[in-house]
Amino acid sequence: MKSLKNIFEPKSIAVIGASVTIGSVGNAVFSNILQSNFQGAVYPVNPKYNSVMSVKAYAEVTYIPYPIDLAVICVPRNAVENVMKQCAEKGVKGIVVITAGFKEIGGAGKKLEDEIIAIANKHDIALIGPNVLGIINTQKEISLNANFALKMPRAGNVAIISQSGAIGVVALDYAHQHDLGISKFVSIGNKAVIDESDVLEYLIDDDATKIVTMYAEDIGHPAKFFEMANKANAKRKPIIIIKNGTSVRGAIATHSHTGALSSSDTAYDALFAQCGVIRVETLAQLFEYAKGFTSLVQPRGNRIVVITNGGGMGVIATDSAERNGLEMTTFEPDTIEALKKALPPTANIHNPVDIIGDADAQRLNNVLSIIKKDKNADAIIVSILPTSETDMDAIAANLCDFAKANPDMPILANLMSLEPEPSFEQLLEKAGIPNFDFPETDIRVLAAMIKYYEWIKLPHVEVTKFEVNKNEVRKVLDTIIKEKRIHLSEPESYKILGAYGMKAVDYRFAENWDNTIIAADQIGYPIVLKIVSPDILHKIDVGGVKINLKDENDLKKAFKEITESIKNKKPEAKIQGFLIQKYFTEKGIEIIAGANGIKGFGSLIMFGLGGTFVELFKDVAFRLAPLTRRDAINMIKGTKGYQILKGYRGQSSYDIESIVDYLLRLSQLVTDFPEIKELDMNPIKVLDDNKGIIVMDAKAIITDEKDISPLKQKISVKKETVIA
Amino acid sequence: MKSLKNIFEPKSIAVIGASVTIGSVGNAVFSNILQSNFQGAVYPVNPKYNSVMSVKAYAEVTYIPYPIDLAVICVPRNAVENVMKQCAEKGVKGIVVITAGFKEIGGAGKKLEDEIIAIANKHDIALIGPNVLGIINTQKEISLNANFALKMPRAGNVAIISQSGAIGVVALDYAHQHDLGISKFVSIGNKAVIDESDVLEYLIDDDATKIVTMYAEDIGHPAKFFEMANKANAKRKPIIIIKNGTSVRGAIATHSHTGALSSSDTAYDALFAQCGVIRVETLAQLFEYAKGFTSLVQPRGNRIVVITNGGGMGVIATDSAERNGLEMTTFEPDTIEALKKALPPTANIHNPVDIIGDADAQRLNNVLSIIKKDKNADAIIVSILPTSETDMDAIAANLCDFAKANPDMPILANLMSLEPEPSFEQLLEKAGIPNFDFPETDIRVLAAMIKYYEWIKLPHVEVTKFEVNKNEVRKVLDTIIKEKRIHLSEPESYKILGAYGMKAVDYRFAENWDNTIIAADQIGYPIVLKIVSPDILHKIDVGGVKINLKDENDLKKAFKEITESIKNKKPEAKIQGFLIQKYFTEKGIEIIAGANGIKGFGSLIMFGLGGTFVELFKDVAFRLAPLTRRDAINMIKGTKGYQILKGYRGQSSYDIESIVDYLLRLSQLVTDFPEIKELDMNPIKVLDDNKGIIVMDAKAIITDEKDISPLKQKISVKKETVIA
Predict the structure, then answer these.
(1) Among partner residues B169, B315, B648, which is closest to A386 by beta-carbon distance?
(2) Which fold does the domain A589-716 belong to in CATH?
(3) What's the pTM?
(4) Which run of H or of E encompasses A41?
(5) Interface test with A, best of B316, B417, B615, B645 (most A CBs within 10 A)
(6) Contact criterion met (CB below 8 Å) for A646 and A656
(7) B3: pLDDT confidence band, cut at 50, 70 and 90?
(8) ∠ at Cα B238 (B237, B242), nearest 5°?
(9) Which of A103-112, B624-633, B663-672 has the lowest mean pLDDT?
(10) Could you tell me if A295 and A434 are in contact, meaning their C-beta atoms sit under 8 angstroms apart?
């Protein structure tokens, strides 16, 4: 196990490539470490100098007569490999390679990177980089700023992991301007050895870190990330992430609905949703959330009170609360009575409370002490504009006292000021009262917190494991591999689904006309007739499907039409035979369920109602396999189609329980057989409640890529209780 | 006509209630006017003083021996009426009543407000307020800051209209902190006489104002606002608005789908969409847009180039461009060739261009001069992080030179700095280069501008007027009024639709069984049988509809079932008879169209596809009557259902032209007869292209409220060209 203790908590550091040349990276890094009041010893390494900034220099790291925990490397690219070898020889277990020009430029750079990876792995070295800014640890006992561009930030409990050095600069700049305290900072660059999940693993046990913020362009190992995120949840450490990077949608030709609708970005959304990670879109939001999470106590519920001295702010707050799913508390009669006494007649004594423009700090205090007693107040937002009566410093001081006396009540503020950096901001910061520009920000932050705390409160759910017939599936897939095909025929698809307990509509396969008649008689009219050919994926497009055939005459006509249509439209297709299915007339609704293997993520499971729901509104939900029962339920509930399934406008409800069952079985199938690249059940007919569901058509494709690595979930063999 | 010239451009001002008491409103207002270097003369009016701040005071406004253009009133509430009378006597034509305690507190306040309104109207006084902060005019020739809370902002070309005084304070604070120049500011408070549309009318001709920003909780006169917004468009003055205030949805019981889906907020959205007003959700956005519009030249198109020295910013910009409908330009081969020569090998020469961390001002310049020649570059975003090589002042100066040399190229920047108020910001501001925190803001602003300029570029469209039979409608409505009903029966609804050229499916009305048989024979089987009763609005709910009746036997059974069902479920209903309709089996798709009178707005017209489209996805579009042809087309195109109407996935297209026709006819009907409160055509069957559409069911309700005031559109009798 490569420990990040050597990276973040070294007792001794070698800066290899330390330099006296102002403006050079080696100079900046060494000088930053010296200036950061690092509590250990730092040694410059550079054969050109006897000393760097008055500190005795060594020509090579191996010459340093003391043990070295961390080496920061800023030598030219071609020297990195050799220097790494010397570090290995010296027994250095933590290395930050700041130097750029590796994998990110391809070609020779990629090769050099592979070489330093080999050295790190051989010697069990925790390697950050290459192509990074460096690292920061603000803890007093360490006090380390080992990077070439950033000043030491104020100590605090927010950790920053940035894949991009550029965004790292912006992030620390923003943190500085908004007075956000930082615990650790790391720029992880090319992630040759250590990636975000490894850093996360370290930060979970880092007492100085309470919130992890992250800028990512990709997640190296989704399964490990998932595991670490769950551990972070157990420790109540929220992870807030910007995941950027253009989607790969459209880049890959897909064969199924599921494939067409899913992308790596969908997989990221599913991943984050399944482990409670908070995804934001902008850097501003990232830090707003960080500030909220770092300051505020956990809200009891979502019923907020807004107190303002300007009616307009109350209106904005009310609108914003509705948009973000928060509720404006309705006061108890006692509260209203007390407010009536405490406030002038022109004030608004209902929520949002308007204490009007001539309010001073005392009036605000009176109102706060009334509202805190109202059992319906879960959080308070105080929005105060500067007027001739408002002494903002006094108001801020009072708010701080109130927060101290009521440690269970989340309080957010917008104390506005005409000064660029008003003195009360630090007061509020220290008292754990986030102060934002506008009430809309307070509300957005509060809503995100409530959602997070609801998520981590949920009991642990295990993955249900069904008894299935794996051998049957193995046999089908082996046949296909042997025949060097990638598409499963419709009967083959039904077979593997059947082996996992997913029932298809009654069908027969017939190779010729005579057997077709026999099959139709066995099944009973009306029937559906479909072509079966490994060369025809989209049967309807080539006239390969005829439905509602009522008797032998209809059947004969349909048989002829299909045969002729294929001859015209797809003359080269090898026809294996025909599929004869029961024409299903029972009342029901069509859904679609499928799976799509996403490189690095395992299988992404899709669910949605059929027809325009899926095609036009993209009203579908995705989760990564293996699904828990909660995942499956959340998928269904996450679509608008759920309104119809559960009985829309007094109509009867459909068999949702069976959909959950099939989604879980599908998840188990593609987890057991990662070579199933795409699988579509489209449509599945869902009958009324308790009447089951039936697959009406299915297709599947296998792959020989075996890089698929599903999320690790605890497995249970018990079946769980009924849908909520 | 009440002119706002006296308000914003007075030569002489009386401050009635001017005071020497520090902290009083009368003191603040008078002192602010003095300090603002007002270019006219200001007179304090207060019987208690001989002089206020060394300026000769008068006991009453009438005692001032000079003409007075503007009176600013800050006397106690009960004195306002009397003071107003004195102003009228003095011939003052502009008054700002700062004093609060009027309509906003109800009761006696409302009565007092009515009294001052009467005085203002009688004497043709332009009255701002009551309950306001005051006004500001930064123009050098006026230089007036007449309010009690705000400092004089920097002069510029953004006007601010705020209904709320509180938001006014926040707005000017924000403008100050973000160095946004202001032309006029006005807080309009209770809008007793002058409202936002009146101020807009004044600002349209105000050369100092190029952009109007507005905070509104309601729009007093939507029709006038619409007219003024169109005039502003003609002058290329964008209006950016935050319209807050909780929606009235659900507060009113409605009788139709259209009613249930529409609200005053829907009406506001429609109003703004129909006159190109830009609605934003947050104050931050309001000022970001203002800054963009005030600085930037009009972009030629939506193909942007991003230049950065940090790859991560390029990724963020690319994602953001996709979200906002902008396109990342693909460079010409020449551009790529030139960039390859100008940049180091590790740079990214494709868009977003990464000039990498060691770039200096010269390298950026070289890249800019290459890119400006690329004909696919419609706008440039320059996103530069501080590194050891970046001299931000030099970069800013170069950008300014570039902007000056290339006045047609919109340039936005994110020059980041670790300083709180870097010196280059003013440089950029002066050169018309908006500089935001993050590239995502640049992109959002640019997208809003492109949308606006596309809107104002559209040619003027007149409202089509059809030849109709107004008398027929009048007759039907008169009968209903005479019978003191509010609901139209189904045949009555068909009659008024028919009079305006909207065809219903063939039907007969029969009072009894004998006539029902005759009617069925005349129409021909299969038929639909429906109950007709003024007491039954939702026929299906009481078993009042039977479809697909194939012969007399079916009909007899249905007749009996309906009669019995009504007897059971609605025994008190007065049955007028039965409606016999052709059972329509032609292939088609169902849509819904309707109208709903919204107090103050006239009729809101709705369009959507039927079934789950409207019910579950609320996939509907709204516009206010009278509709132009473009409005009707935009409504249809604004729904997802449009994808189906125009022929989804190779299927045939439906008769969209007829839908446009019916929406326009519906618009004309409810405009001609504002007493039609709600009208639903649900469903309308739309046949294949050119085959027409047919109303299958309709209901309508009339009202005796006559406050409905439709938007003024130019009317044309010509029909226009075919749908695009």
Answers:
(1) B169
(2) D-amino Acid Aminotransferase; Chain A, domain 1 (3.30.470)
(3) 0.80
(4) strand A41-45
(5) B316
(6) yes
(7) confident
(8) 140
(9) A103-112
(10) yes
Give the distance from CA B537 to its chain's centroid.
34
B297-433 against B506-582: fold identical: no
**What residues contact B538, with CB distance under 8 A and at least 6 apart?**
none
Tokens 């008078």 belong to residue: B30
Report chain B residues whose CB lies below 8 A from the CB of A541.
none
CA distance B199 to chain A (A): 20
Quick check: bond before B352 cis, omega within 30? yes
The alpha-helical segments, DSSP class H, found in B64-195 are 77-90, 108-122, 165-177
Provide the pLDDT confidence category of residue B250 given band limits of 50, 70 and 90: very low
What is the DSSP annotation of B572-596? TPPP-EEEEEE---SS-EEEEEEEE
DSSP string, A215-282: EES--S-HHHHHHHHHHHHHTT--EEEEE-S---TTTS--SSHHHHH--HHHHHHHHHHHTT-EE-SS
Both structure tokens of B526: 């299969």
Q: Tell whether the model's pLDDT for residue B257 goes beyond 70.
A: no
Dihedral sign, CA of B470, B471, B476, B480?
positive
CB contact under 8 A, A312 and B417: no
B161-217 pLDDT, tens digit per residue, is 999 888 888 888 888 877 789 999 999 999 999 999 999 999 999 999 999 999 998
- Cβ atoms of B71 and B93 within 8 Å: the answer is no
pLDDT tens profile B84-112? 999 999 999 999 999 988 998 888 899 99
Phi/psi of residue B716, nearest 5 degrees: -130, 150
Under CATH, which number does the domain A5-209 receive?
Answer: 3.40.50.720
Distance, in Å, from the CA atom of A312 to the CA atom of A367, rounded to the nearest integer, reads 19
Q: How far apart are CA A450 and CA A298, in angstroms?
A: 8
B325-381 per-position pLDDT tens digit: 999 999 999 999 999 999 998 888 999 999 988 888 999 999 999 999 999 999 999
CATH of domain B297-433: 3.40.50.261
More confident residue, B136 or A420: B136
Give the C-alpha separation, A509 to A511, whole Å: 7
Searching chain A, which residue's CA lies closest to the CA of residue B246?
A319
Domain ranges of chain B: 5-209, 297-433, 506-582, 589-716
The DSSP code for A385 is -
Q: What is the pLDDT of residues A246-265, one digit of tens each?
A: 543 333 445 566 666 777 78
Q: How far is A134 from chain B (nearest CA, A)?
A: 14
The DSSP annotation for A112-139 comes to: HHHHHHHHHHHTT-EEE-SS--EEEE--
Per-residue pLDDT band for A245 (boundaries 50, 70, 90) equals low
**Fold (CATH) for B506-582:** Dna Ligase; domain 1 (3.30.1490)
